[in-house]
Amino acid sequence: MRTLYNMKLSVTLFSGLMVGLLQVKSQTIIPIETKHNALVLQVDAKANIAMVYYGPKLAAQSDYINIVSSYKQGSEYTGVVDAAYTASGSRNLMEPAITVTHADGNNSLDLLFVSHAVKKESDNIAITSIVLKDPVYNLKTILYYKIYYNEDVIEQWSEIKNNEKGNVTLQKFASANLYLRGNSFYLTQYHGDWAKEMQPEESKITHGIKTLDTKLGTRANLFQPSVFMVSMDKPATETEGTVLYGTLAYSGNFRTDLELDYLDNLRIISGINNYVSAYTLKPNEVFTTPAFLTTLSSSGKGTASRNLQSWARNYRLLDGKGTRLTLLNNWEATYFDFDENKLFGLLKDTKKLGVDLFLLDDGWFANKYPRNGDVAGLGDWAENKKKLPNGIASLVKEAENNEVKFGIWIEPEMVNPKSELYEKHPDWVVKQPKREEFYFRNQLVLDLANPKVQDFVFGVVDDLFKQNPNLAYIKWDCNAVIYNAHSVYLKNQSHFYIEYVRGLYQVLERIRKKYPTVPMMLCSGGGGRVDYAALQYFTEFWPSDNTDPLERIFMQWEYSYFYPAISSSNHVTDWGKQPIKFRTDVAMMGKLGFDIVVSHLSPNDLKFCQDAIKTYNEFKPVIWQGDQYRLSNPRESSVASMVYISEDKKTGIAFNYLVNNRYGEGSKLPIKFHGLDASKKYKISELNVYPGTKSSIDAAKVYNGDFLMKIGFNPDINQYRTSVVLKIEAL
Ligand code: GLA
């Protein structure tokens, strides 16, 4: 074992990145720095490794050693209260990151520092790895800290290695363990249900443990997504305050514990939920956890969100810097009631509207038990002969004739009990062998832990592409949670939830290997599966089945803290009471689509939509790749306002809405812009003006960027102008 004492003082410097090692007396400091921040680990003379700091980086790395001694918060009884990865069963008294039962049945663990290494992956990316080992048992853990320097994002995960002679049981196995010192902490968390995704709540964290978790297995985020924010000392605003964003990149059961301890410090431990998931690790086996992502900003939520959005576009979201297809979807236009003829009509409407693609939703498959409602047919992925006598191929061909692309809905992980698939393969279904079945939306989940099921699910997608090479888009749905978790295939039921998610990722890996670029929408009865592990396979997600534009303003607002606009599929539908202009304006704030009966639109409504799509095509580079600034919060004001500004600060598009119906409400005050160039001159004009109406904005006026940011601009929102889209253009 390499000890601390023979380690030399070394600081590694390389272009743009500073990750090093400083040894001062018997304390070793490992600063992990991004552009603005540092996460600092410290190893003491007894090889305990602590996380001593995560905050704005200091000018001199040698100052990090003085951090801990500057805090006089009380007695430290264990030497591991601020552990970088809290082990349990020995000295520790707090919530652990890892709990194991050794091969001999012993439950104690201590993890001491062995060595550390830094691997540079590019000018922007470096991975620090820290090897820890139990001094008594042959169990190793490696902590990984991957930094994305310019985006101020840190990705953490761990590897647990069993070098013992027999099986080790992992009772808890977190991805990451943070320890934050501060005066007080404020948590912003989210909750929801179907059509009510991303409802925020902010509260001061009190002593004890607050757990954010899910045990749903699939559609795991239905009640609670894993994204959260922690503000330090006082609640952060868009532009002020220190705030940490965190999320586990994982599509199954997660658990994040936030423990305010007796010293008033905050321990954050996040990983796979260990709920009924004790994991047996065989000798020489390695358990790799999913990644926990954080970004930290000292200038409010806006900076944090822009950092996370850039990171997602640059490194995580599939084709994050690429393009997307506008579309017409038939779900709300037809539900299950359609046939080839009707769809041919909709393909013509797709062309008429001016979008890129027609998306055929649920209801196109199954014959013995036709999919004419959500009670039957799921799992039987052959075209329904009655509705589509000439198959999908004929629709793809007709789409080509109309010069539009064709996409299709699938939900390949699921099965209706009333299906041929269920009849043939009851052993492929997740259910308790001795208990009555219990359904979510009349369906059950297929056992993705079983490789045969993985092949089947892959086959659903592969066959569609093999038969229709010109298929241009997939909407992948996942509508059920897991009840009665049990796999006939698995010997160890405690591995079920984990193996399910591994199976899912294996299928998605295979799909992406064969079809690397085809756009896929991540849907889960709405936003039930929006996370940064799934999004590496998907180009976009469906935030919610709730498309009421007023609701969407609030929902898209919250999603925008964590996910870039290019990933948010927003469709114009008939939900809500607002006119088509309002609905279209709101949908334009992300990836635009429609789910309406085009033939029911009045001539003016149709004209408006056609023009708005053209405008969208012009501005989509700014909406997708620009910097997003939330200007006026619908939860705090009668007007919601959000602006997207190009990197060169020459072009912008601002969306403004009335969100309060009370008498006389509107934009009484000018709305202050952010992100413009103070020294540039700008013109502001109105976009998406409804046919036959006139804009009240004087497009000829010239404003200094400085004025627009210090005084602001009034979009003239009132009861007659409830939705106003503005073009900002530098002269
Ligand atoms: C889910 C999706 C909807 C639609 C239906 C089809 O609810 O969220 O968009 O695709 O399934 O059954």
Question: What do these coordinates show?
Answer:
- With 731 residues, this protein is an alpha+beta fold.
- The chain contains eleven helices and 38 strands.
- Strands 8, 9, 10, 11, 13, 14, 16, 17, 21 and 22 form a ten-stranded antiparallel β-sheet that branches.
- 53% of the residues are buried.
- The model is unreliable at 1-19 (pLDDT under 50).
- The site of alpha-D-galactopyranose has 12 residues, from loops.
- Substrate binds at residues 194, 361-362, 441, 475-479, 523, 545.
- Its EC number is 3.2.1.22.
- The active site is at residues 477, 545.
- GO terms for molecular function: alpha-galactosidase activity.
What's the helix and strand layout?
Elements: E1 13-14, E2 17-18, E3 22-24, E4 27-33, E5 37-43, E6 49-56, E7 98-101, E8 112-120, E9 125-133, E10 139-148, E11 153-162, E12 168-180, E13 185-191, E14 199-204, E15 208-213, E16 228-232, E17 242-249, E18 254-260, E19 266-272, E20 279-281, E21 286-288, E22 291-297, H1 300-316, E23 327-329, H2 331-334, H3 340-353, E24 357-360, H4 391-401, E25 405-410, E26 414-415, H5 420-424, E27 444-445, H6 451-467, E28 473-476, H7 496-514, E29 520-522, E30 540-541, H8 549-559, E31 569-572, H9 580-587, E32 591-594, H10 603-625, E33 627-632, E34 639-645, E35 651-658, E36 681-687, E37 702-704, H11 705-710, E38 723-730
Parallel strand pairs: 23-24, 23-32, 24-25, 25-28, 28-29, 29-30, 31-32
Antiparallel strand pairs: 1-2, 3-4, 4-5, 5-6, 7-12, 8-9, 9-10, 10-11, 11-21, 11-22, 12-19, 12-20, 13-14, 13-16, 15-18, 16-17, 17-22, 18-19, 26-27, 33-34, 34-35, 35-38, 36-37, 36-38
Residues 331, 361-362, 374, 409, 477, 479, 523, 525-526, 542, 545 line the site of alpha-D-galactopyranose (GLA).
